[in-house]
Structures are given as structure tokens and as C-alpha cells.
Amino acid sequence: MQIAFHTLTIFCIAATVISSLRLPQWWVKGWDVGRVHLAWVMFVLFVIGLIYFPLSSFWVKCYLTSLLFGVVYHLRVIFPFTPFHKVEVERAEKSDAAIKFLTINVREKNTQYQRLIDLLNKVQPDIFLLTETNQAWYDAVIHLKKQYPYTILRPQENSFGMLFFSKYPLINSEIKFLVEKDIPSCHTHIQFKGKIIQFIGLHPRPPAPSNEAENKDIELIKIAGMTNENHLPTIVGGDLNDVGWSRITQNFKLISSLKDPRVGRGFFNTYNALIPLFRVPIDHFFISKEFKLLQIKRLEKIGSDHFPVLLEVNLET
Fold this sequence. Notes:
This protein has helices at residues 2-19, 26-33, 35-52, 58-78, 113-123, 135-141, 213-226, 247-256, and strands at 98-105, 127-131, 150-154, 162-166, 170-176, 185-192, 195-202, 234-239, 283-287, 291-298, 309-315. It is of the alpha+beta class. It has 2 domains: 2-81; 98-315, Deoxyribonuclease I, Chain A (4-Layer Sandwich). The strands form 2 sheets. Strands 3-4-2-1-11-10 form a 6-stranded mixed sheet, with no helix packed on it. Strands 5-6-7-8-9 form a 5-stranded mixed sheet, with no helix packed on it. Helix 1 (2-19) packs across helix 4. The N and C termini lie far apart (62 Å).
């Protein structure tokens, strides 16, 4: 047990130091994403150290001090996503201009198409974005154009296809490849009750040894700049393959002036739906100051490794 304690403690301390580095490499971003889990492991190690090891030992004191500082550091970073923090998006007092969005990474190899269709029929979103969609997913949901006549459709066989459906008319719609030639983003203006809403849907590549991790950061910063090209009410959503507390996401918010409706409300972990012990919030909505929140909710599984996320907001007059 003593060897295991020493090994895990050193490992967690090293991971904590790595997570604080300002580097775009995947092995740094991975620990930033797993910060909550790292904090829990360090807390358990701290309790074990207090109970089972002599406090008179110099190395035990060093370990316990480092573990305690690590837990405090991680909690400080994730604190805005707890109910103890002030909310960033206020609750709407009315719903006279309510609009309901849904985003879900369906998982390309998931073939449980009917589960998604049943969920859409149940929730009745006004607009929804499906990511990781290939031709098979396109064929399974294209009949929904009867209910959602306005679409932006880009199925791909590389796990980065996008399908966007809306009950409201769309203008200036296009698929853009901002950084990588095979990674699309969805850009459109929605005509909603005499007003125009700008929507941008994203799904950048995740941090991994085979990917250029900085490409995701570059795409987010480019999108942040685009949101400031006009003064339209704006919503950005999708699978960002990053957490809300990461530095790049915070920079994205700073540049775009968009707000995160989860701040002060909870994590809303969306991945991995198939592994309960490892879940992190990487599917997002960010909204501009013109909106107030009616609800944000993680919905039930549809066979994907991601949970769907529902956002309902009121466009304030």
C-alpha cells in the first residue's frame, strides 16, 4: 500500500503541475479536461495519508501538503461551475420570445437512429445540431425536413460531419473550413420573430497524440472574432472537445463576450455517456447578452457516447 500511495501521489502532483502549463499539447490539455477526477483522487490520497501514515515523517508531510494544495488549486479552477458561484446568465422572467436549441454528438458508428428521433419528438426543439454524422445518419434523419424545413447538411465519413435543422428560416448559411480542410463549422442567421439570431456550430478535433492540438484553439479564437463582426444576438454550440474552465475557452469567452449558462449551475457532464466514472462537460452552448435562460438540461442517452444538451432561452426585447 505504501508503494502505491507514493506512486499515485507523485503521479497526481506531476499531473497537476502539467495541467497548469500554458502549452497547446494534448498531454497538457488532457489533464485540464480531467481536473475534477484528478481533484477527487488527490483528496482520497490526502485522507489515506492522514489515516495510515505517520505525520512525523518528512516525506508524508511533503506529500500531504502537496496534495492539499493540489486539491485547492483544482477546486479554484472548477469553482465557477458549482452552484456556489454567481450565475453568468440570468433566468428569464418571461417566455414571450422563447427558442429551444438541442445539440448532440450522435457518434458516427451509433446505429440507434430511432432513439434520437424519439427524443426529438419528445423534446420538440426549434433547432438542433447533430455532429459526427455520416451518410447513414443523413439517410436516417433526412425525413425530419418535413418538420424542420430549413437545413444545413454536411455528412462526412471522418467523424466530423454536421447536420443542422431549423423550424425557422435561415439566411446567409454556409459551411466553413476555418483551420483544417476536413473539419467543418456551421454558420447561419436565423429569422426569429422579426429578429435575426446568429448561430455557429462547432466540432473541432479533440486533443490527441495524432492531432494538432493547437488547431482547435485557433478555430475557437477565429469563431470568437467572428461573433464580433456584427451586433446580432449570438449562440455558439456544439462539441468543442474542451471544458468550460480551460484557458482557451475562457479566452474565447473574453474575445467573443459570450456567456456560459452553466456557470453557477453545474457541470452538465456530457461525455463519456458509456463510462459513468469518467464524465466531463465538453458539449457547450455560449450565448450573448441579449438572451436570458429558461432552461439548460442534459437529456437521456441515445446510444452515443455523448449526452444531448438542451438549451431554451428567451430573446429579451
